[in-house]
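# step 3/5: fold
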Amino acid sequence: MNWIRQFHRWLSIIFTAVVAAIFITLGVGVEPAYWVYLMPLIPLALLMLSGLYLFALPYADRWRSRRRTA
């Protein structure tokens, strides 16, 4: 269970670094290729999936505990 939190944290660092690199290249005046703008979408999609899983964990635990007591 702890590995997904670590995975989510590292993905957020990667996502932030990619977005920052794109803005830095734009600030320097270099126009990156079109596919560079699509690069953040991969970690962003994985962040969404892992974030939704982490968000649902407490609710799933409560649901499981209620099922056991009933």
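# step 4/5: annotate
Helices lie at 2-28, 34-38, 41-69.
# step 5/5: archive (pending)
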